[in-house]
Amino acid sequence: MLPAILLLGIITSFQDWKIGKIRNKWVLSATIYAIIIHTILFSYYGLQGQLSSLYIYETLTDFFFAIIIGFSFWYFKIWSAADGKLFIAFVALIPISTYNLGYEKWIPSITLIINIFFIGLITMLIIIITQTKKETLFNTFKSLIKTTFDIKSLLLLTLNLFALQWIVQSILIFIKIFNPILGMGITLIAYYFIESILKKKLIFFSLGIAILKIIIDPSTYTLNFAIEFVSLIIIWKIVKGIFLGTFAKTGEDLFTQTIAIKNIKLGMILKEYILKKDNLPKKEIEGIKADKKVQVIIKNNITYIKKKKNINEYDKYFNEEAEGVTLEQIKKIKEIGFKRIKISHTIPFAPIIFLGVLCTIITKGNILIVLKHLLF
Fold first, then answer.
1. Considering only CA atoms, which of 345, 202, 355 is closest in space to residue 268?
2. d(Cα 346, Cα 78) in Å, to the nearest integer?
3. Which of 92, 87, 76 is nearest to 115 (CA)?
4. Which end of the chain has the lower number of beta carbons within 10 A, N or C?
5. How many CB atoms sit inside 10 A of residue 29's CB?
6. pLDDT > 90? residue 90
7. Cα distances (angstroms) measured from residue 274 to each of 17, 159, 318, 329, 337
8. Alpha carbon of 193 to those of 43, 57, 69, 199, 320: distances in Å?
9. What is the mean pLDDT of the segment spanning 127-152?
10. Confidence class of residue 314 from pLDDT cuts 50, 70 and 90?
């Protein structure tokens, strides 16, 4: 499989870097090649009586897991459809025996996902640090430290994560998955979405769950739980500071550009939503206009609102894909009458996926576990 992995990685990384595209013919060819090779090997070793049926089942479940992840990450606009298909092709090519450290039964390629996004995080940090002015970078770190050690937010975070971690762990144990890193990841993702929906109401839910955990779960009083829970809080603080806090703001400014509407091109990633509201009351319109970061245009009793992207906005004028705006969407935007709009510059993701694959093969598994062994 290794020659095909290297060939696919080099070609797609180069094309994504140069022209911003991953051609389907390479991804499809690699996937078909993987299926043929697996079929030949399974048939040969099966006839020799040297093949475990469990190995076949896990290879198939892992491949279907990769399809679900590839589609889901595209649907939630985490990566493009091309990136999702490339990930599926790599999973098809990598034998499940490669995943040694941090092996997760039935879905071993979750290790590859962790490695890819860890490398993506490091890449983004390097770009931000090397391309940001020293003064701005110093103020960013200063603000990050200040928000990290805010007592009120730290206590609230502790309560919420204490409750959610227990729920996630209980579900994973029930379905017989015992991966602490996976549990941490799911807990943090769940916390992000639940907090964005419930906001201050989350404290009442968390308080009830926390009290129940303290009463009925003896593992709460173990050293292992304490270490894992403190690690969870530290990771969240780092993640929030980088992706949602002042560090994220610095990175956002670095990768954001304001352009004239007439200059929008196919595939550009917008940093602003356009919302469409019918027959809004005059008082509500005036309230929206009071926000200087929001622009409003009214045409035929229809109010168009241009504002910064928000994950909780569901009534957008159009749904932008992960690949960027389409020609039809560009036409709609130009017809409204806005003069300027913010777009986002992205970095090619195929090279990051390829680096994640190489690191997985070299380390025989999870990079984070390797780093943990090196540091501790």
1. 345
2. 12
3. 87
4. C
5. 15
6. yes
7. 30, 36, 8, 11, 12
8. 45, 33, 18, 10, 20
9. 74
10. very low
CA 197 to chain centre: 18
User: Tokens 């020293």 label which residue?
Assistant: 134
Q: What is the token pair recorded at 141?
A: 């770190």
Helices 350-363 and 2-19: crossing angle in degrees, nearest 10, is 150
Per-residue pLDDT tens over the stretch 24-43: 999 999 999 999 999 999 99
Q: Please give, one letter per residue, the 3-state secondary structure of the chain.
A: CHHHHHHHHHHHHHHHHHHCCCCHHHHHHHHHHHHHHHHHHHHHHHHCCCCCHHHHHHHHHHHHHHHHHHHHHHHCCCCCHHHHHHHHHHHHHCCHHHCCECCCCCCCCHHHHHHHHHHHHHHHHHHHHHHCCHHHHHHHHHHHHHHHCCHHHHHHHHHHHHHHHHHHHHHHHHCCCCCHHHHHHHHHHHHHHHHHHHHHHHHHHHHHHHHHHHHHCHHHHCHHHHHHHHHHHHHHHHHHHHHHCHHHHHHHHHCEEEEEHHHCCCCCEECEEEEEEECCCHHHHHHHHCCCCCEEEEECCEEEEEEECCCCCCCECCCCECCECCHHHHHHHHHHCCCEEEEECCCCCHHHHHHHHHHHHHHCECHHHHHHHHHC
- Residue 128 half-sphere exposure toward CB, CA atoms < 13 A: 22
Q: Which residues pair with 341 in a beta bridge?
A: 259
Task: Show the tokens assigned to 108.
Answer: 């071993």
Closest listed residue to residue 359, CA positions, set 122, 106, 144, 198: 122
Provide mean pLDDT across the span 57-83: 88
Phi, psi of 271 (to 5 degrees): -100, 0
State the pLDDT at residue 329.
Answer: 84
pLDDT digits (tens, 9 = 90+) for 335-357: 888 888 888 777 889 999 999 99
> Which of these, 246, 118, 106, lies nearest to 185 by C-alpha position?
118
- Tell whether the model's pLDDT for residue 196 goes beyond 60: yes
* CB half-sphere exposure, 148, CA atoms < 13 A: 18
Record the tokens describing residue 121, joined without a space: 């995080």
Q: How far apart are CA 245 and CA 249, in angstroms?
A: 6
CATH no., domain 2-118+349-375: 1.20.120
Q: Position 107: which residue type? A: I
Q: What stretch(es) of the chain map to CATH 1.20.120? A: 2-118+349-375
